[in-house]
Design a protein that fits this description.
It is built from nine helices and twelve strands. Strand 3 and strand 4 form a beta hairpin. Strands 2-1-5-4-3 form a five-stranded antiparallel sheet. Helix 2 runs antiparallel to helix 4. The chain starts with a helix and ends in an 11-residue tail after the last strand. With about 475 residues, it is an alpha+beta fold.
Length: about 475
């Protein structure tokens, strides 16, 4: 049989579990208090009775049987707390202040018994008592006891009060468990409604925040943050799709136009079919390069840095400088590099190499002949590793520096250069995937008709773990 939903809730089951543990602990404490109190009361009563026995036996030893009997009568008349039974050698009662004489009490052995008594209303009651039978030198037996009924009644009242308190705790605990379970159930129901809405396609749904600062609020905030990122990713995907469709329209139309011209020229005998196919292949390569770049950016944004490892970025920077120095010289640029040693970072080397290649390639592409490009790799005062490329080309206006980091954004002065507007977008994705950032600043300024230039910095956190040993 399936349990009601309330009993399947974790808060309610945890409440019942803690209540069970509390009841078990309280029962153990109650038993300890009861038996410890009873033992202490019995010990004190025994010590008191034993003191009375010692006093009476001393009278018997020093003054004889009649003096003991007289002392018992006097003490019984005073209505003291003790119970007396004085018997002769044949077992006949000489003096006693109780009628219920315990039978079969062995000499020197403590005995518990019930004393019949009447209360103020005349009701008969049997009170707990203890006593000890002491043989005397003349063959007589002296039994001395004490009524401990008041102590027993106190322990009974204490036990009853503790049990009442435990019942109250159980009632309040179950009620509190129900109240807590209902509150948690309402909070979780809100989260479940959000999850259901998202599953049905509503990415605008958000979990309510109660501002209580508990773990449910933390879960709701985390869920909302995840949904914000998911919504942003979906919007980015939709934007990327629209941008790709828009940006590919021009190269596709250009490819179609060039192929039509090549076809006309081939039919007229002004060119060959091989040259026409070469034009089509060049345009197809440009389109494939655009698609590959978009896929690389999506991969980075979706999964972060793939297969990261610790390596010395100074070696990577030196390789990139060596690779692009001839390209800068071919264009008539002054290309220089300043690279510090020991720049350990934790990341994916191929993606970082692609990002640095994009930065250097952009600087070489947009710097006019006779200009200069400076590539630096250094450690900042904060401990981060910085790669920077500085040129004295036309630069990027301050208002456009955030915009050029977006996909497919190309400024007017770059329309004549080949490209898809994805270079800096890829660098930004690489930086974010590695926990870093990209920063654009003005270059060295206007000098000799050139400038103001541009300085692009890729800033990454330094490695926090040791490099892995190669197998």
């Amino acid at each position: 049989m399936k349990l009601p939903s309330l009993f399947r809730r974790t808060p309610f089951r945890l409440t019942l579990l803690f209540l069970a543990l509390f009841v078990a602990t309280a029962s153990a404490v109650l038993a300890y208090v009861y038996f410890a109190s009873a033992s202490e009361a019995r010990t004190r009563a025994e010590a008191s009775v034993q003191g009375e026995v010692d006093s009476l036996t001393a009278i018997y030893r020093t003054r004889g049987r009649d003096a003991l009997n007289q002392a018992l009568v006097e003490r019984a008349i005073r209505n003291g707390p003790y119970l007396y039974v004085f018997k002769d050698a044949e077992g006949r009662i000489i003096t006693a202040n109780i009628t219920d004489v315990p039978d079969g009490v062995q000499p020197g052995q403590w005995e518990s018994f019930r004393l019949t008594d009447t209360d103020e209303d005349g009701r008969v009651r049997r009170r707990q008592s203890i006593g000890v039978n002491t043989p005397l030198s003349g063959g007589e037996h002296l039994f001395v006891g004490e009524d401990i009924g008041d102590i027993e009644a106190y322990l009974a009242r204490l036990t009853q009060a503790l049990w009442g308190a435990m019942v109250m705790v159980l009632v309040l605990g179950v009620g509190g468990g129900l109240w807590i379970s209902r509150g948690v159930e309402r909070a979780m129901a809100g989260l479940n409604r959000v999850v259901t809405a998202v599953q049905e396609g509503d990415l605008k749904a958000r979990a309510p925040i109660r501002h209580s600062g508990d773990e449910l609020d933390e879960l709701a905030e985390g869920l909302n943050g995840m949904l914000d990122r998911l919504e942003g990713s979906m919007a980015s995907i939709r934007h990327a799709g629209d941008a790709i469709a828009h940006d590919l329209r021009t190269p596709l139309n250009r490819m179609k136009a060039k192929m039509e011209v090549a076809l006309i020229d081939a039919e007229a005998g002004r060119t060959s079919g091989v040259e026409a196919l070469g034009v089509a292949l060049d345009e197809a390569d440009a389109l494939l390069k655009t698609f590959n770049t978009v896929l690389a950016i999506a991969r980075l944004q979706a999964g972060g840095s793939p297969e990261p490892k610790v390596f010395d970025a100074a070696d990577l920077a030196a390789d990139m400088a060596e690779l692009y120095e001839p390209a800068g010289e071919d264009k008539g640029l002054e290309f220089a590099a300043e690279i510090e040693k020991g720049l350990m970072i934790d990341g994916n080397q191929p993606f970082l190499a692609q990002a640095l290649a994009n930065l250097i390639d952009n600087a070489i592409k947009y710097t006019p002949e006779g200009g200069a490009v400076m590539f630096r790799a250094r450690r900042r005062s904060s401990g981060d590793v910085e790669f920077s490329v500085t040129d004295n080309g036309p630069g990027v206006p301050d208002g456009d520096r955030e915009r050029v980091l977006q996909r497919f954004v190309r400024l007017d002065n770059s329309r004549t250069e080949p490209g898809s507007g994805l270079g800096l977008s890829l660098v930004t994705a690489v930086a974010e995937a590695h926990g870093g950032r990209i920063q654009l600043d003005e270059g060295p300024g206007v000098f000799d008709g050139r400038g103001p230039g541009l300085r692009v910095a890729l800033i990454l956190p330094a490695a926090t773990r040791a490099p892995e040993a190669e197998a």
